[in-house]
Amino acid sequence: NFGDDEDIRPEVKSLISSLPSYTDVEGKKLCNYQGCWYYYKNLQAVLDYQKNFKPLDTDIIVTSYPKSGTTWLKALTVALLQRSEDGLQNHPLTSDSPHGLVPFLEMKLYLKSSTPDLTNLSSSPRLFSTHMPLHTLREPLKDSPCKIVYVCRNVKDVIVSLWHFRSRIENKEAERSKLESIVESFCKGVNNYGPFWDNVLSYWKGSLEDPDHVLFMRYEDLKEEPYDQVIRLAEFLGCPFTQEEIHSGSVEKILDLCSLDNLRNLDINKSGIAWNKLHHSIFFRKGEVDDWKNHLTTEMADKIDMIIHEKFQGSGLRI
Ligand code: A3P
């Protein structure tokens, strides 16, 4: 239970007691740090990250609000950086899951230790991921030129994806009452890593202010024009495709390797267990745009749209 007080150090407990807090419908406790809601254990890890992380200039950080396409973006990033002349056979993605190859800072590395050993990570450059908002992520990065890629997704699909994800974790049928409570918590903005709009806007604004170091991507764009988006990602990461690669179909090979069906059917993702004891398979479901239309009522959708419209107004962000 991430909302437990267990294993929280006294100085963190003392900080938590001074922060706004909230207990969700499942009885999990959250508190608000730098404008974002966290379960206590994740907050402790965020604080340890902020205090102890030493960036390298070449680091790459894959970021998102949960259920926005994190797994896909991690896979694409690994595939782009680790493409070699022998093609994609024996690619690292066939022997480890995207989450194993691109570990979460606050949900894995700093959750396990306040000073994790980052010297023997499997990737070079080092790859990390997070769901924390940009201002919180950037604190220890200071003037580091490391690259940050964010993926954003339509909030209504995020909600439906989260509903199914939570039900799968509990090994239960997806119940309507759960969906209603998720919609309500999203609308209030009091939920894990929420408010959703603040998370998205932190990266949207960051990408406008510093486009060389922050790239803002959309799940829907990746679905609609995967080829162009992967080329865009490769350029941002500093590993653009050569003409030769383009002609030899390298972009298509990467897209195939990272497709939902291919990843889902790899043994490692079919039967493997992730660091948090979850089955890798639960990160792969339908992967469709507008699946919310099958689940949300018009009333729910209108309410969410109204809030998001108001929050994103004037930002230039198209939703
Ligand atoms: P759905 O639940 O709508 O199917 P995250 O990786 O941030 O947890 O997001 C999970 C969502 O991304 C799920 O959406 C999942 O099916 C989808 N997804 C996972 N891998 C994908 C891939 N390779 N291509 C497209 N979508 C993918």
From TrEMBL:
Query: Could you confirm whether the keyword Protein biosynthesis appears in this record?
Result: no
InterPro entries reported for this sequence: Sulfotransferase_dom
> What are its E.C. numbers?
2.8.2.-
Q: Where is the Sulfotransferase domain?
A: 57-316
Keywords associated with the record: Hydrolase, Transferase
What molecular function does GO assign, one term? Answer: hydrolase activity
Q: Where is the signal peptide?
A: none
Q: Which family does it belong to?
A: Belongs to the sulfotransferase 1 family.
Q: Which PANTHER family match?
A: SULFOTRANSFERASE SULT (PTHR11783)
Question: What is the recorded name of this protein?
Answer: Sulfotransferase
Q: List the source organism.
A: Arabidopsis thaliana x Arabidopsis arenosa
